[in-house]
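Ticket #4471: structure export looks truncated?
Reporter: QA, pipeline team
Priority: medium

Steps to reproduce: submit the single chain below to the structure queue and open the exported record.
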Amino acid sequence: MTIGFVQHAPRYLQPDANRQHVASLVEGSSADLLVLPELFTSGYFFQSTEDARKIAEEIPDGATVAWMEDLSAHLGSTLVAGLPERDEEGRLYNSAAVVSPRGFEGTYRKIHLYNEEKLHFEPGQGPLPVFELTARDGTAYRLGLMICFDWFFPEAIRSLALQDADIVAHPSNLVRKNCPRAMPIRALENRVFTVTANRYGSESNGSESLTFIGQSEICAPSGEILTRAPRVGDAVEVAEIDLKEARQKEVTAHNHLWKDRNPAAYSLG
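Actual output as written to the record:
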C-alpha cells in the first residue's frame, strides 16, 4: 500500500482557503493514506483563546469533516487531519479526525499539550486510538494516531504499537528541531511505519513568533527514512510500504520485541 503526507503553510484563521489549498495539492493522488498537519485549517499560534474558539468545529458535524468525507470519496484515500475542536459544552481541544472512503472513522484529542496550547485547549484523556482500516486493494491495516508533541513521550507510540498498529499517523506543527531525528528511532524501537505531516512558515501571537521546521517524513520499521520534505515549501510525498515489515517483531532468531518485554521489571510512574 502507499502512505503519504501533505506539508503546507496554513493561513491564520482562514479554514476555507486552507481546505481549498490542500485539495489542490492532493488532486490526483492515489495514496491509500494521506496525513495532513496539526491544526491545518486554522494555523497554530493563536493570538487569543477567542480566536481558537471562533474557528473551532464540532467533530464530526463540522465543515472540515464534511470536506474530508467528500475528498476521501473523491480520491479513494483515507485522510487524517488536525483541527481545533469544540465540544457540546464549549471546551476546546487540539484534535485530529480520521475519515476513510466509507466515512468518518473517529477522532483523537491531543493528550500532551505543548507550551501555550495549554492556554487555549483542554488535554485529551485518551486512550490513544488505533483504527481498523482497509487500503484500496482490500488489504486490512491498523492505524494508530498521535499529534505533534506526543512524540516526546515514548509511551505514546509504544501504547499504539502494543495495540498492533502497523502505521502511526502523526499530524504536527513542529518547532523543535530534534523531532525529525527522533521519529526514525520511534519507528525502529516499535517496528511500525510512521507518517509525520508537519507545516512550515512562521506565525506570531502578537508578542512572539514561531518558525515551523517542515521536514515532514515517512519512516520505516527499520529506522530508515523513506522520504522527507524540505524545511520550506509545499509537498505531497508518498512511499510504497509492505505491512509485513511492521508485523515482523523478531529482532534476532532468539529475540522478539514483545515477548522479550518484562513489564514487571520496569518502574512505571
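Status: closed, not a bug. The export was complete when the record was re-opened. Leaving a note from the reviewer for reference: The domain at 2-265 is CATH 3.60.110.10 (Nitrilase/N-carbamoyl-D-aminoacid amidohydrolase).
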